[in-house]
Amino acid sequence: MTLPRPHRIDLSIAAVGLVGGLVLWSFGLYVTGDHLVGQRWAALVPLAVMSATEAVRRTAPRTALIVATLAIVADQFTNGNLATVLMFTDVVYAAVVYGPPASARRIPYLTGLITVAITVVLLIWWQNAIALLVGVITGMISFLPAITGAIVRNHREAADAARLRAEQTALLAEMDRAQAVVAERARMARELHDMVANHLSAIAIHSTAALSLDEPATTRQALTVIRENSVAGLAEMRRLIGLLRDSGGESEPGAVPSLDALDSLLARARANGSAGGLEFVLEDTRPPGGSLPAPVELAAYRIVQESLTNAVKHASPGTVRVRVGRSGGVLTVAVDSPYGQRPGPGAPGTGSGLVGMRERTELLGGEFRAAASGTVWQVRAVLPAEERAGNA
Q1: Would the pTM count as exceeding 0.85?
Q2: Which of 83, 145, 197, 333 sits at 20 to 30 Å (Cα–Cα) from 372?
């Protein structure tokens, strides 16, 4: 097993401690004059060992603390060196700051118990105030560094936790922003499709008819319809562009389409679908005077609009029937159109209209279905007519 390389700062601390201890030793500055080992050089052994533990105080904190404890005990049997004591306090501090969490929690308690135990034993043995002084010194070189390390470690962990929370908050904010952008793009795509697709479909169908039929009256009628749809589509585009540019809210937004305009919507569909042999019938069974939330009314209007657009593009000759009704807290929209072979010119479809209608319904918490039933293409949307609905 390869041991991690010592940190550069730790090597510098070890070198400074060793040199400082050697200077004190050379001048004969000892911690105590009482000693069991008489040789003067004996104090250098704990000094050298302690400086070695300083070199690994960050990479091997527990091992450094164990060896340093043995070294400080051995130092008590020599003349002693102040540098050895100071380096021991730093090793205790580093063991709490850089050691494993379990060790960081235990070391302050152990050093506190050792300080109390030494003080009590010396009081019993010596029976004078010097024992209290020795206890204070023991606490200063063991318990105080451990408590300091615990405080520093707690502050660092709190700072790391705060930084992590800030990063997570920033990440969540970015995710919310991205989702909001995607949702807004989808909403704009639905609005653009619903507002412009019916006009462009009518233009495509009638321009094809004008090019394929060499009859002045038919050509004039087709060009009239093309001009009307071009002007209407341009007005819708200008209204949407004005809404998008109105970020400051200083100008008045355009009127939001409502179900009260279904008659005008069907009249335009009759003009666009007359060439394909289509008739349009509206059955509005809503009770008079009932109001709907704006998102629900807009969604219902767009669903009818898109269904009529699809009928003009794809339906076979016959009657397109639009039914709108409200019962309690539910608004029902149903559009039935002839389904089968279509004579004459048509317009290609991409399926985005059905996707938009389904999205509008689901965003409001409603139900949507579009499928063929025999010779009838049925569109059904059930929308909540209460204020709990979200934005369409």
Answers
A1: no
A2: 197
